[in-house]
Design goal:
Elements lengths: L1 H15 L4 E4 L2 E4 L1 E4 L2 E15 L2 E12 L6 H6 L4 E7 L6 H15 L8 H9 L10 E7 L3 E6 L12 H12 L5 H10 L7
Antiparallel strand pairs: 1-2, 3-4, 4-5, 5-6, 6-7, 7-8
Length: about 200
């Protein structure tokens, strides 16, 4: 009887497991994510491709988590609500230097070149990525009203920063959801907004 019960439980686990996460490029993104007392939902997921020597290379998988699903980029960017970006590096082409460079470019575009009012917060955020970044690393960039932006690496329970302020949050999420000049980033934004499916 006990053996039959264990088999039944195992079968149920096998049956429900695939529904607990969305798999993109071999990376599992859970459909829900807890931020404090809030349960966030996976809004959309996609792949960041980077053109290298005229060929697109997939470098990381990203997922956007919100309180309620939305495809309105500006509403998400401006919202003073808990949200998170989950980023998993899938290529050795991503290094700390390249990630920081791309982030700086992102802040320039998301603020339309007006980074001065939040330059101190930008510098603090960027320092988090100064340590070596390697294939397989997982980053969770979390915004919580009253606490600010926190970054958790490889399932760490602590963040080296807590950067307060809605302006830095707006600029940060604008990197992935705002208007970008690079086509691959435009595609990723649509995937995170759930209007396009990652291939």
């Amino acid at each position: 009887m006990l053996k039959q019960l264990m088999v039944a439980i195992f079968a149920v686990v096998l049956f429900v497991s695939p529904s607990l996460a969305l798999t993109v490029e071999g990376v599992d993104l859970p459909y829900t994510m807890s931020v404090g007392s809030e349960l966030l939902l996976l809004n959309g997921a996609g792949v960041r491709a980077k053109k290298i020597a005229f060929v697109n290379k997939n470098v990381y998988v990203a997922g956007l988590y919100l309180k309620a699903k939305s495809s309105d980029a500006q509403k998400i960017i401006q919202a003073d609500e808990p949200m998170a970006l989950r980023i998993q590096i899938i290529s050795s082409l991503i290094t700390s230097e390249r990630f920081i460079e791309a982030t700086k470019e992102g802040f320039q575009e998301s603020t339309k070149g007006n980074t001065a009012p939040i330059q101190k917060e930008i510098d603090t955020f960027i320092k988090v990525f100064s340590d070596e970044i390697k294939k397989g690393d997982l980053f969770e960039i979390v915004y919580t009203p009253g606490i600010g932006i926190q970054v958790f690496k490889n399932d760490s329970k602590t963040s080296p920063v807590a950067i307060k302020g809605l302006p830095i949050k707006t600029a940060l999420f604008g990197i992935w959801l705002g208007e970008r000049t690079e086509k691959n980033l435009q595609i990723l934004a649509k995937q995170l907004l759930g209007t396009e499916t990652a291939k």
